[in-house]
Amino acid sequence: MATQMAFLGIGLMGQAMTKNIVGKANLEKPLILWNRTQQRAQEHSSNIGHSLVATTVKEAVFSADIIWSCLQDQKAVTETFEEILKMDIRGKLFLESSTVVPDVTNRIAKEVEEAGAEFVAMPVFGEPSLAEKGKLICVPAGPEASVLRIKPYLVGVVAQAVIDLSGEEAGKASLLKIIGNVLIMTTMEACAEINVFAEKTGLGVKNAQKLIDNFPHAAAHTIYSTKMINGDYYKEEAMVEVKKARHLTAQVLELAKANNVSLKS
Ligand SMILES: NC(=O)c1ccc[n+]([C@@H]2O[C@H](COP(=O)([O-])OP(=O)(O)OC[C@H]3O[C@@H](n4cnc5c(N)ncnc54)[C@H](OP(=O)(O)O)[C@@H]3O)[C@@H](O)[C@H]2O)c1
């Protein structure tokens, strides 16, 4: 029987990912979309086609075999799964792509599995413009058979690469995501310092960007620096809100402190 997929969370990442799922995954059945703010899901559904909007999270989960979620933060994930766990979810597979700390991921994985369903944690690396291009790096962890079931939706659909942690407990993927955020934060910090240095010395950010673009292995620096000097972080609807960046930084620092790791930068 054809697989029915639902996607929970039609934010910036969810919009980009679902556009690629509908466009490239050859879904036999229309993708079910659910978003807390329903209108956002409705508008997005009209844009991408081959999808329909569920009015409640329960309605989305009830009809689906695979339920993929990408929600703002831990609170959103916890609240959404509280709702889901009130239902009969036997036989369903949950694929969770939000950024959540390992303990919370492991707790939800356990609860979902005890309820007779499968759980794969799969945080992603790559901001929304990369997600739009289907160039995310996906980190799935959980039972091998479950990870195998979701592989057809990764490379060539939403992802350019998969860091496969199948067979590991789900929280290991969250751990890699949080540790990996250090790379993003230090890259942004380096770009910010170079750009300020270039402006204050009269070199100018355009000239600094020429070096950044041509520097070996500088793809990430190019992305963040281009956004910085184009003012993407100043726009009304920011690519990354400061409060989200602070939240992510706090997660990293808490985890580091709990493990006696000193992160000086
Ligand atoms: N943006 C990035 O660069 C990036 C990169 C990699 C990974 N991620 C991760 O991907 C996830 C989503 O990020 P995003 O950039 O798509 O965020 P976003 O644009 O702010 O979207 C957040 C989504 O979560 C929903 N939401 C918020 N609170 C909720 C709640 N209490 N209950 C149910 N739904 C709730 C929002 O619904 P409404 O529309 O109703 O507000 C929206 O659909 C995050 O965990 C983030 O860490 C982001």
From TrEMBL:
GO terms for molecular function: NADP binding; oxidoreductase activity. The active site is at residue 177. InterPro entries: 6-PGluconate_DH-like_C_sf, 6PGD_dom2, 6PGDH_NADP-bd, HIBADH-related, HIBADH-related_NP60_sf, NAD(P)-bd_dom_sf. It comes from the Eukaryota. Transmembrane segments: none annotated. This is 6-phosphogluconate dehydrogenase NADP-binding domain-containing protein. Belongs to the HIBADH-related family. NP60 subfamily. The keyword Oxidoreductase applies. Keywords: Oxidoreductase. The keyword Oxidoreductase applies. Residues 5-155 form the 6-phosphogluconate dehydrogenase NADP-binding domain. It comes from Cladonia borealis.
